[in-house]
Amino acid sequence: MARPTHCMKPLRFMSLCTLTLCPFITLQECKAVGFRVLNQNADAVGRGNSFVATADNPSAIYYNPAGITQIEDKQLQFGSYNLYFESDHRSVTGNKTDSTDRLFAIPHFYVTYNPPEMPLAFGVGTYSPFGLGISWPNDSGFTSIITKARIQYFTLSPVIAWEVLPNLSIAIGPTINYSATQIKSTIGLTPGDEFSFDGTAWDFGFTAGLMWQPHPQWSFGFNYFSETSMDYDGDLGLKPFKDVQDSEGTLNYPSFLSFGISYRPTPKWNIEFNVEYTDWDYLEDITILDPTGPDIGIPVEYTSGFMYKIGASYKFDNKITLNIGYFYTENNVEDIHFTPQVPDTDLHTLAIGIGYEYKNWYYSVTYQHITGPWREVRGSTPSAIGESADGDYQYTFHTLSISATVKF
Question: What mean pLDDT value characterizes the chain?
């Protein structure tokens, strides 16, 4: 029986890597966002992350690096995106459970420098463009599918931007990416048995952007973030059947691109609309090395798609800025591929924030509320011991973004 058990658990690990890498420390909408982290600056979050055609603070390094040519002198920005979420599950038999991981935080940090009398601007930022994290209790009814899943993904992004014309800028820069993963589930053959995988990986990519403002009231922006492939080196544990052993797993992360239009009817108003596309087809199959057997591959069932976002800001005479934003995301995983690690329901996202300028500092705070209707899941693929993720699911998120920017 030991050999079938060993084959079964790497297969389950692959299912986790394929379909469960979804809530780490922020909202992950699976229509076009999957396990992406969108929220990288409080002002931008307040505008529904519609910021690619504005990009007028140091977080432009993430949203559109071409925007740093419009940022004066030297500026530093830091902050965090803080999330509290509730995930409720009702099984087909009426059992009610919810996840145990609830509060998370993602930091962001950016520095920009625009030398006087030069057409070039420079910047570097660190942020988390992907991630997940969730734990389910032992009475969930699907512990052989998942008890814990966590992915951390951090990017260091130096960029250089060139003001080609007074109203046109382009930018490019490498991304240095680090990721760590931890996956746990029960095996389901003996009391207290467990499967686990812990691994870390590095990879490199690039980001690019374009900003065009043909008229003072209109600007257009484009941003691209390249795909990466993480080859995790780590430990595979099968308790109590085998000792921890070295293993490898591969997960591809998708590219995404954004296009935005910003309209400023007056100097106080800024209204922006964004379209964002994520190439989830790049994920393809995920593989893990079984040290005592053949590699295993599981197909990924994500579908590439678009997201539509809209936001607005109004600057009062007393240096206070009000931000509002909204976007809606449909679920994109059929019931047969649904897993409890993916908050894959129709989700409405509404944000409101405020900014305040004081001397050479600018402070911004945004509240974001995300929720959707209950999703009924029937016919999901069972685990090797027959446990199913069937049931009803609802997810509610409360987030608070905080950012501070200082000019030197």
Answer: 84
Predicted structure pTM score:
0.86
CB contact burial 237-258 (16+ within 10 A = b; e otherwise): bbeebeeeeebbbbbbbbbbbb
pLDDT category at 366 given cuts 50, 70, 90 is: very high
Amino acid, single-letter form, for residue 144 = S
pLDDT in tens, 209-250: 999 999 999 999 999 999 999 999 988 887 888 778 888 888
Q: What is the pLDDT of residue 34?
A: 54
Question: Is the alpha carbon torsion for 371, 372, 374, 377 positive or negative?
Answer: negative
Tell me the C-alpha distance between 375 and 395, whole Å. 9
